[in-house]
Fold each of these.
Amino acid sequence: MKCYFQGCTSIGVTKEHIPPKAFFPDNEKEQLLTVKSCTEHNNAKSKDDLYVLAQVCMNASPSNRAREIFLEKVKPQLDFNNAALRKLLAKDAVKLQDGSVKYDVDIKRFDDFFTALSCGIIFKSCGATLPNNFEVNHIYPNFSSQQDNYLELEIEKFYQGKPMTFMEFGNPNTKNERIYTVEIFGIPEFKSSLTIVHLFFGKFKVISMLTNKM
Ligand SMILES: [Zn+2]
């Protein structure tokens, strides 16, 4: 069976969880999806998964569920491996005058993560890898540097109406606080551009735009 990643022609030799297992408590993993991955696209980047999860939790407040996941999944990992994750999160952080800390976000790491996640979601819902003529871009409305209401309103027009697929992961402890839900908008069989709306804890949104360049 082929690898799930866009443009990859290698054989999938390992099993990859989508969304990543690292995002879910042990008793909420059974419903996760898996895809086959080649060694190159095998997410051997558990540090990246945790980095993204930490940033998502930190930017999803107020959410009790995000705080619980942070304490259970991220905090115990912060000081492993010579505090690699802690150092990564603190990189370029700035202490503000009121004593709070503003954390910088590594957008490249986020882009790589959401491209892989989008490829996995598309592979599962469409039964094929994303064709090469699709360009992938991501928008992060929760990050203040990208907060631009006008832009976000324009982009929301791309995905109005009924999604072609809707999936949800993680048992909700409280209403609207599933760990991850995803909607895909567009026309099946890659006949149009696609928009994937990822939502974490009902609060942190990422919009992936898969644009058909043909
Ligand atoms: Zn691959």
Amino acid sequence: MIVHWTELTKNQFDDLRESAVVAVNFSSTEQHSNHLPVGTDGYIGEEVLTEAARRAKHTVVLMPPVRYGYSPHHKFAPGYVTLRQRVLTDLCKDLCGCAAANGFRKMAVMNSHGGNTAALHSAVNEVGEEYEGKLDLALFTYWDLIGDALARVRESPMGGTSHGGEFETSLMMHLRPDLVVPSLIEECDPAPSDPYNEIDLAGKKKYISFYTFNRFNASGHVGQPHLATPEKGKIFFEEAAQAAAEFLDFLGGKQPA
Ligand SMILES: [Zn+2]
């Protein structure tokens, strides 16, 4: 069941803090090639988390989402708004700290932008250090929950489903077709991998390195957006919302560590 944090009066928090799960989406604002808007990660992440909160059996108190993330990889193109990594960590830490200070015991941070991973992971460590035994905090990235559906539905080989590729373009065609520009979708090869690193949402990553996202083409996407369809987007969305709902229920029912 979904409850919006900002719609509650101060007295209504009393009934929720013991059993509810607080949830918040972190996304980003950055170029997504020529055919998708810079707010893509937020449009997708917020829809997935809102639908997941609706479907969850536990009460999920949704905090307003954070639309800015860590995106220096996209500075070659207009439209980015990037936070310093330390600021993002502190922002996440403060939101989680406020949930704990308000008496909540469970919290989920859902990430919908790959570049945020390290900063949000740092926040989880720092919150854990400070609120151990008080707040059960879990960070997850929504596409990690639907690896099976992704493998089943995608037509692109490894390297086709990354930033602005088959997966995200399909989701936007389903969720916000008004913001997709089909005439500007380019036909591209999959991003090349090396033996230790596959440039794909489902790829293996045995090492970490920094690169800007015009490395594969000047347009700034990574993967094969020409394989996207709204039908695939609907399946990805349903699977992601359901998987996230089940995860929120798992967190809600889990004994605190
Ligand atoms: Zn994206």
